Task: inverse folding
């Protein structure tokens, strides 16, 4: 498979020194790889240690087919990879012939934007109007943030630009739009279906016509109503979305946040636009959330392991905050979105992992607990469960064990996959589904007394 990935390998042979019995590791430095706006490629150094056996590095680019990178089968070493802007690289450490996944790290490559000169408070781009009343036409490639108003409808083309995984469990959505010929002043009433435009100026020719944003794969927007999915909302020309965006420099706008609503309301026979009000929600107590979240994580062996896998202290702090924010929750909502927006990019990585794991576990808490308990008492189940060290894999495996496992140990003891268990499986992450499938295969091959 042809990949735009340039590699130069420098392998460090493992020494014969005695090592502590710890988990295999795979790390990347730097991660994310931040590049100047005029640079499209950069480098990251992978470092691995299997703590014993031979290790092989494989990579998947943007969720594609995996390709092996190193031919040497050393227990420890380094490998330098050249990566490109806008792509996501999932590097995985396997044993021989990919029999077992030992560790994984996802590397992203972003353009580092320099702050614009004389940027006004609040992060908004300088805007204005000409003396003749026509809106100013502007380019926005300086990295500054601004409000982009979109009128929904079939003219907005929705796509997926990336699926989630253990380190980036969110769905990455793309929204293609048409540039408005006028500013959206005051709040979008003059936009046609599928058009987007800033409130106080018009995007220059050549400006991006795509918005990218993240949301959990089952995200239902609380502002719109849980009965409507976000995508369905975007297809209704009576709806509007108000994005805060900036130009990424690679042909798209990145949405930092968004709000939803209709731009006009009827008063008698006259339509009056409601004012845009800048609300200031109560400040989020991140310190208290982090303290509470760490205590929550320590109650479950899976979240303890997942927390320890976070790449640095910032990611672990974000993980703790995510554990507290998602406690007892099953869906994303504006409260958790606001908490996430208050975090640094490094903290958001840990936050996303914690929230995604919590949602999957909370939806199936009883099954997961039953399955984990069975793995503690049945060595055959424990061995099959440990075939993959990914915590999301374990969770999926435990959930299926709770459904198909030995009924004498507390499982439901189902003997075939049905609509109910299939629905549970399909709600899991891709890695969780792998664990679920492996568990089903094991349990259906055993003859439990019922």
Result:
């Amino acid at each position: 498979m042809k990949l735009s990935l340039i590699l130069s390998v420098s392998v460090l042979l493992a020494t014969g020194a005695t090592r502590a019995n710890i988990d295999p590791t795979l790390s990347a430095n730097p991660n994310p790889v931040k590049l100047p706006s005029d640079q499209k490629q950069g480098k990251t150094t992978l470092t691995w240690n299997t703590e014993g056996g031979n290790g092989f590095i494989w990579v998947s680019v943007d969720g594609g087919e995996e390709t092996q990178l190193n031919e040497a089968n050393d227990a420890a070493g380094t490998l330098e990879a050249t990566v490109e802007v806008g792509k996501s690289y999932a590097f995985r450490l396997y044993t021989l012939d990919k029999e077992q996944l030992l560790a994984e790290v996802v590397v992203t490559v972003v353009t580092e934007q320099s702050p614009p000169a004389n940027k006004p408070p609040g992060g908004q781009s300088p805007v204005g109007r000409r003396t003749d009343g026509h809106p100013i036409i502007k380019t926005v490639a300086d990295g500054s943030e601004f409000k982009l108003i979109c009128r929904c409808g079939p003219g907005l083309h929705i796509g997926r630009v990336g699926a989630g995984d253990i380190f980036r469990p969110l769905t990455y959505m793309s929204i293609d739009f048409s540039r408005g010929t006028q500013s959206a002043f005051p709040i979008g009433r003059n936009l046609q279906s599928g058009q987007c435009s800033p409130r106080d100026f018009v995007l220059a020719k050549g400006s991006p016509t795509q918005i990218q944003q993240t949301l959990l794969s089952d995200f239902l927007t609380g502002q719109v109503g849980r009965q409507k999915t976000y995508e369905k909302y975007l297809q209704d020309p009576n709806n509007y979305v108000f994005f805060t965006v900036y130009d990424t420099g690679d042909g798209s706008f990145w949405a930092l946040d968004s709000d939803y609503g209709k731009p006009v309301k009827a008063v008698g026979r006259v339509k009056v636009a409601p004012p845009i009000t800048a609300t200031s929600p109560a400040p989020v107590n991140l310190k208290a959330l982090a303290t509470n979240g760490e205590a929550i994580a320590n109650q479950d062996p899976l979240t303890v392991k997942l927390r320890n896998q976070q790449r640095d202290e910032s990611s672990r702090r974000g993980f703790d905050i995510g554990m507290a924010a998602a406690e007892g929750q099953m869906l994303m909502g504006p409260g958790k979105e606001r908490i996430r927006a208050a975090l640094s990019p490094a903290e958001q990585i840990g936050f996303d992992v914690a929230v995604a794991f919590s949602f999957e576990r909370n939806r199936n808490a009883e099954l997961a607990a039953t399955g984990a308990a069975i793995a503690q008492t049945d060595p055959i189940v424990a061995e099959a469960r440990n075939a993959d060290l990914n915590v999301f894999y374990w969770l999926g495996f435990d959930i299926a064990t709770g459904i198909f496992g030995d009924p004498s140990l507390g499982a439901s003891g189902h003997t075939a996959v049905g609509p109910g268990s299939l629905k549970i499986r399909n709600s899991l992450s891709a890695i969780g589904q792998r664990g679920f499938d492996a568990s089903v295969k094991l349990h259906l091959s055993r003859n439990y007394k019922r």
